């Protein structure tokens, strides 16, 4: 039985015309207790660096609550590799660069949102958040449910979503 949240991801993939390049994987309930190497093998990913997670970051100093302007939003979905650490200073600089540094530094402070807020914003719980330079250029993410994953071509994802791509690794 496919969970409703996974069906929501499938609908999102369909809306972005990514169903022909994405693959869904139901995984075992204890998946997050496994090592990254075992998860990599389970998903048939080429390396551990291909395993990614979606995290929702909040600009706590944003003077508004809107997400209408992607260049100065209250919240951002950031996709990071499990093998990398997010550098919040790079995120701060990238956020300011989106508006050519015309907005004061005092209006930026990024932090990870609480799981409850993440679920309110995305509709997905911990371990299932999905947004919708690796070889091959594919990444694996949560697919709306903790026991499901989705693999999608990086190029197709970027083209379909128009997302920003930048190095935020420490």
How do the helices and strands line up, and which of them pair or pack?
Blueprint: H1 4-15, E1 23-26, H2 36-43, E2 52-59, E3 75-81, H3 88-97, E4 110-112, H4 115-122, E5 138-142, E6 148-153, H5 154-161
Antiparallel strand pairs: 1-6, 2-3, 2-4, 5-6
Short description:
The chain has 170 residues and is α+β, with helices and mostly antiparallel strands. The protein has helices at 4-15, 36-43, 88-97, 115-122, 154-161, and strands spanning 23-26, 52-59, 75-81, 110-112, 138-142, 148-153. The chain is built from 5 helices and 6 strands; from the N terminus they run αβαββαβαββα.
Largest sheet: 3 strands, antiparallel
Remind me, CATH topology?
YbaK protein
* Quaternary structure type: single chain
The percent range for strand residues is: 15-25%
Report how far the terminal alpha carbons are from each other: 40 Å
Topology pattern, helix = H, strand = E: HEHEEHEHEEH
CATH architecture: Alpha-Beta Complex
Tally of DSSP helical segments = 5
User: So what's the overall shape?
Assistant: globular
Strand order of the largest sheet: 1-6-5
Q: Overall pLDDT, averaged?
A: 90
Poorly predicted residue ranges: none
Going by helix content, strand content and strand pairing, the class is alpha+beta
Range of helix content: 25-40%
Assign the CATH class. Alpha Beta
CA radius of gyration is 16 Å
Q: Can you count the beta strands? A: 6
Whole-number total of structural domains = 1
Looking at CATH, the homologous superfamily is YbaK/aminoacyl-tRNA synthetase-associated domain
